[in-house]
Design brief:
With about 500 residues, the chain is α/β, with parallel strands linked by helices. The chain is built from 20 helices and 15 strands. Helix 9 links the parallel strand 8 and strand 9. Bound molecules: uridine-5'-diphosphate. The site of uridine-5'-diphosphate has 20 residues, from helix 1, helix 15 and helix 16. This is Glycosyltransferase.
């Protein structure tokens, strides 16, 4: 751990404000933990129920002597008509997701109050909280933005906002080129997140507030690594004038502790169950299927997925959401039939530990950014099954640019639930075979995945590109001259 050599100086104090989604909290807490390993006093501003999700990570880090803590502020449950304790996208039904967004807009005063009260040296804010830019400006401290996604999807969106190719095509299924990108990427409108598909002016206004907040930031901290995305850092700087610091994959350095779930008996028994089961499996033989913290599938789709995993014929570890109406979709006798080769985990699995286990050979993923990066850094080939938000862009990166993944199906693709095609069991089985089976192409893909995984690990090692990225970010915060004179930052 880097420490302060000057006894009269005090450590840098940085505040982190993650958004109310597990896929945003996990990497931001990991980043805060990384800062703490460099001697930076790190505080995470969080609401009470979300604090329980990150407390295993924070407790383990502070027990190891790292300067890291949480600072609580209330979640405006009653104002948005959510029950107490429902403070995260993962803890509400899909139809209530807009209430989480609405709640986030009501946190301005708490952020303002806490930042003015504690006056940190810098704030690292989720991009959703655009008001933190002006608070930081008032306090003469830098605001660094965090998107919770990679630079590839950020640049795809930046190009789309600038050139609007998706608004000039004749229909939702007509492919268009994303202009100017370092790689020739085509998409169709139905693969885009809802805020890009719609011409809604309210969304337009919100996006322009976000974009102003970005330009007023010192830059963007990215959970990714230069060897994967440096062309996109150059693109982002050239077109949006944004500085970026790669500091990931953050799970590589923090993944051995619990992440994203309360450390209750259920989580502990799930971990034991996964690890015991994996121990009995052959090297690289298992397909791990998991779809993030807030996915939704129809019953018909769940049934096809079950049958597809069975049909593929490889051992599988499949994580399903708890209380997902199993009685409606679980095929008759499924668990009994597959008990020798399949494990169904209900709720939360220790994903990073699972992905790193020697028995895992492939990953069926919904392409949430964290999952994609965790799969990449574990050196695994992937089957991509994007569902919503920017996930179809992430799919493009791993299938077309990096070349370590195959699509779960080739038919109609859409981020909208009502437009989704039911992916058939046979299609899934074929895709799984492409990453797990024999043949030159599969071997080449696995070899490439191993190579990229090695690069990811090296990036976070001492002296690696992301290790140095974090050093540069900390130095840039120290060097920030936003009007602070005489403060004894070191
Ligand atoms: N995750 C986990 N166990 C699970 C499901 C998810 O540890 O059973 C973690 C996963 O490792 C990742 C995060 O939750 O770090 C999910 O983030 P991602 O961006 O992949 O998807 P999102 O949940 O945002 O859709």
């Amino acid at each position: 751990m880097a420490t302060n050599s000057n006894p009269n100086s005090r450590p840098l104090r940085v505040f982190f404000i993650p958004y109310f989604a597990t896929g945003h909290m996990i990497p931001m807490v990991d980043i805060a933990r990384l800062f703490a390993t460099r001697g930076v006093d790190s505080t995470i501003l969080v609401t009470p129920a979300n604090a329980t999700l990150i407390s295993p990570t924070i407790d383990a880090a502070s027990a190891a002597g790292l300067p890291i803590r949480t600072l609580l502020y209330p979640f405006p449950s009653s104002a948005v008509n959510l029950p107490p304790g429902a403070e995260n996208l993962a803890s509400v039904p899909l139809s209530d997701a807009p209430k989480i967004d609405a709640a986030s807009l009501l946190t301005v005063n708490d952020h303002d109050r806490l930042l003015r009260l504690h006056r940190p040296d810098a704030v690292i804010s989720d991009t959703h909280f655009f008001w933190t830019t002006s608070i930081a400006k008032d306090l003469h401290i830098p605001r660094i933005s965090f998107h919770a996604i990679g630079l590839f999807p950020v640049c795809v969106m930046s190009s789309l906002f600038r050139h609007l190719p998706h608004l000039t095509v004749s229909d939702d299924l007509h492919p268009f080129l994303i202009p100017d990108l370092p790689h020739p990427i085509h998409m169709i409108r139905s693969e885009l997140p809802d805020f890009l598909r719609s011409n809604n002016t309210a969304i337009g206004e919100a996006m322009s507030a976000l974009s102003d907040a970005e330009s007023g930031s010192l830059g963007v901290v990215v959970n990714s690594f230069a060897e994967l995305e440096s062309a996109y850092a150059d693109y982002y700087y050239k077109h949006d004038k944004m500085t970026t610091w790669f500091v990931g994959p953050v799970a590589e350095v923090t993944g051995k502790v619990s992440r994203g779930a309360a450390e209750n008996s259920k989580a502990i028994s799930n971990r034991e169950c996964c690890m015991e089961w994996l121990e009995k499996q052959r090297e690289r033989s298992v397909v791990y299927a998991c779809f993030g913290s807030w996915c939704y599938f129809s019953s018909e789709q769940m049934k096809e997925m079950a049958l597809g995993l069975e049909m593929a014929g490889h051992p599988f570890l499949w994580v399903v959401r708890e209380g997902d109406g199993e009685e409606e979709w679980m095929p008759d006798g499924f668990e009994e039939r597959v008990k020798e080769k399949g494990l169904v985990v209900r709720g939360w699995a220790p994903q990073v530990e699972v992905l790193r286990h020697r028995a895992v050979g492939g990953f069926v993923t919904h392409c949430g950014w964290n999952s994609v990066l965790e799969g990449v850094s574990s050196g695994l080939p992937m089957v991509t099954w994007p569902l919503s938000t920017e996930q179809f862009m992430n799919e493009k990166l791993v299938v077309e640019v990096v070349g370590t993944a195959v699509r779960a199906w080739e038919g109609r693709r859409s981020t909208e639930e009502g437009e989704k095609e039911v992916v058939k069991s046979g299609d899934l089985a074929v895709a799984v075979e492409k990453v797990m089976g024999a043949g030159k192409e599969a071997e080449k893909r696995r070899e490439k995945a191993r190579e990229v995984g090695e690069m990811a690990k090296k990036a976070v090692d001492v002296g690696g590109s992301s290790y140095e990225g974090l050093s540069r970010l900390i130095q840039d915060i120290r060097d920030f001259d936003g009007g602070i004179n005489g403060r004894d930052r070191v």
